[in-house]
Amino acid sequence: LFGLRLGGRLLRPLREKAGLGRMRMFVSGAAALPSGVFWGFTNLGITMVEGYGLTECAPVVAANEFHRTKPGNVGHPLPGVEIRVDEPDAEGNGEVIVRGPNVMLGYYDHPEATAEALRDGWFFTGDLGRILPDGRLRITGRVKNMIATAAGKKIYPEEVEYHLSNSPYILEVVVAGGRDARGEREEVHAHVFPDFKTLGDLARSQGLAFDEAFVDKVLHHEVDLRCHMLAPYKRVKRIIVRRQEFPKTTTGKIRRQDLSAGTGAEKRTASAVA
């Protein structure tokens, strides 16, 4: 109401009951923070601060300020740390490079890897990003994950995933390049692990059968809705529905290179958007 968020006062009893009465803030890193999660904690009266870092940078590079935090970015560089975007495209996206006293001297006993990562005093992170008008950094993807279309357009899967992950019917999603129906052109495909429980509740509330056709219909609508704000070439053209969650690393990150794992637990649906 009028831009005011009253969760700090009104929900204090709830926070204290949950053992969060003395919690000043939560800090998020390692992966993009969905805007719904950011606003959920904010409305609960807990400040959510998103930051960015790498082991090679000891490790924090940038972070939002406690009293000026915003969703969709990782904040300003820390004092003494410089950030640049190398060879930005028309939208300002390029590889994020870092310079400062926090940057490592090199990889132990790996001179070739050191020479590749450290150039003229700058550390090349392998992450894609752009600098926002207020100087904050937004991470848009990974160099190795980028999808290049036949027309020369660059698509950053993490940007599309960010929009899709805000759907209440999608638990996990990985966006990757795939061939069109003719096998000729690269296009955007979404590998989706749905929230089957929520979908089942939705079907029952509407008096409909909870079957594959219902799941397909809801997911197509959600993908179409969430991708509507993206440029047409970035929109999902095909959905691959998974029956099991994605394989993950020991730190909980999805193994993007293992998308084919569990093929027997998947089914391919029709085109998501025209």
Distance between the termini: 38 Å
Outline, from the CA principal axes? globular
- Name the structural class: alpha+beta
Helix share, percent: 10-25%
**Oligomeric state:** single chain
Note the total helix count: 7
Rg, rounded, reads 21 Å
Q: Would you identify the regions where 5 or more consecutive residues have pLDDT less than 50?
A: 261-265, 270-274
Number of strands: 15
Strand content: 25-35%
Mean pLDDT: 87
Largest sheet: 5 strands, antiparallel
Helix and strand run = HHEHEEEEEHEEEEEHEEHHEE
Summarize, please.
The chain contains seven helices and 15 strands. It is α+β, with helices and mostly antiparallel strands and 274 residues long.
Give your account of this protein's structure:
The chain has 274 residues and is of the alpha+beta class. It has seven helices and 15 strands. It has helices at 7-10, 12-17, 35-43, 111-117, 157-164, 196-205, 212-227; strands at residues 25-28, 47-53, 60-63, 76-77, 82-86, 94-99, 118-119, 122-131, 137-142, 147-148, 154-155, 170-179, 186-194, 238-242, 266-271. The strands form four sheets. Strands 5, 6, 7, 8 and 9 form a five-stranded antiparallel beta sheet that branches. β12 and β13 form a beta hairpin. The radius of gyration is 21 Å and the shape is globular. It starts with 6 loop residues before the first helix and ends with a strand. Residues 261-265 and 270-274 have low confidence and may be disordered.
